[in-house]
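hey so i finally got around to running the thing on that chain from the lab meeting. sorry it took forever, my laptop kept dying and i had to restart like 3 times. anyway pasting the input first so we r on the same page abt which one it is
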Amino acid sequence: MFSDKDISHFANVETPFYHYDLTLLQKTLSTCADAAKLYNFHVHYAMKANFNPRVLEKIKAVGFGADCVSGGEVKKAIEVGFAKDQIVFAGVGKSDKEINSALDNDIFCFNVESIQELEVINELAANKNKKARVAIRINPNVDAHTHHNITTGLDENKFGINSWDLPSCAETLKKSANLEFIGIHFHIGSQITNLEVYKNLCVRVNEFAQWFEERGFIVKVLNVGGGLGIDYHNPEQQVPDFSAYFKIFSDFLEIKASQEVHFELGRALVGQCASLISKVLYIKNGKKKNFVVLDAGMTELMRPALYQAYHKIENLTRGTETSMKYDIVGPICESTDCFGKEVEQPETFRGDLYAIRSAGAYGEVMASKYNLRDEIRSVYSDQI
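ok and heres what got predicted. didnt touch it at all, straight out
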C-alpha cells in the first residue's frame, strides 16, 4: 500500500519507473534466512529474477549465495561480492567461454544438464589442470502445476538429464578425471504455490540420491532448486511462508548427517518489493472497449505479454467512487502490449498515476529498448 507521501513524490518523478520498497525486501530476506537457519539449509539467490544493484547488495549482506544461469550473472555475482564458494552455475546452454571463466574463478559448482556438457567441462578443466565440482541436474518428471511456459521438470522440457540417461551419465562421471561429483540438482518450475508439489519432488530426490549411492557415488549436496511463488492477487500478503516451505523438505527429504540441502530462490525473495509506476497518456473509450494507455509498456514489464501473467493494477490518483472496466495497455506497437483486460478501475483521466504491483521479479531484468525506448529508471523507498 502506498502512502499519500509516496504518491505525492511519484507525481514529481519522470515515469515510468520501478519503485523498490527496501524495507519490505529486508523483511523478506531476514524472514527467509531465519527460517532456513533452523534446518541449516543453504540458500542461493536466483540472480535471473532481479539484478538491480541495491537489491543485490541487500541479498549479499544477508549471507545468501548466488544461483547463476549465464557467464554474465557469474561475473556480476563476483563483482558485487558474493563469495565464490557460494556461487552455482546452471543453464542448459553454457558456452566454452562461460565455463572457462567460471573455472578460473573456482566457483562452488556447475549444475550440469547433459552428458555432453559433462564431457566439455571435463575437457576444459583438464586444459587448466583443474578439477570442476559438478552436480547432476536431473529431470524428475514432476508436474509443478503452473503455467506451461515456466514448467521445467517434465520429460518434455529441455532442462536436466532424463532418468533413462543416468547410467550413461554415471559412466561418464567415473571416467572423467577432471570432474568431482558432489551431488544432484533439481528445479521443477516457477511460481509454485501448492506446497504439496514439493512433497512429490522430495520422493524423487530420495530415489535418485539412493540410485547414485548404490553405484558408489557420495552425494554431498541435495540441491532442490526453487520455484516458490508469491500471491500476485494479494500483494499486501507480502512475505511468503518460508517456514512451511522449508519444513516440507525437512520432513520429506531423507537427509544424511553428512549432506547439505541447497535452495535456489528468486521470485519469493524479491517479487513483492517492487511496483512499476506509470502515468496515463490517453483514455480511449469505444463501443466495445475502454482503453487506458500508459507510458509504460511491454518494454518495461514483459511478463503479461510473454505468458499472460497477472499483476494487480491500481490507480493511485483516484478513489473508488466511480468504477469502469478498461483494457490497461502500453504505447508499444504490438497488440500483445497489454497489462490487463477488462480491469475494473476508478474512472481514469489523463495524467493519473498507476501502479502495477508485484513486479520485483522478472520485471526490470526483462526490460528492453525495443522501439528505442529509454532505459527504465529505479526509485527507492529510502529516497522518499
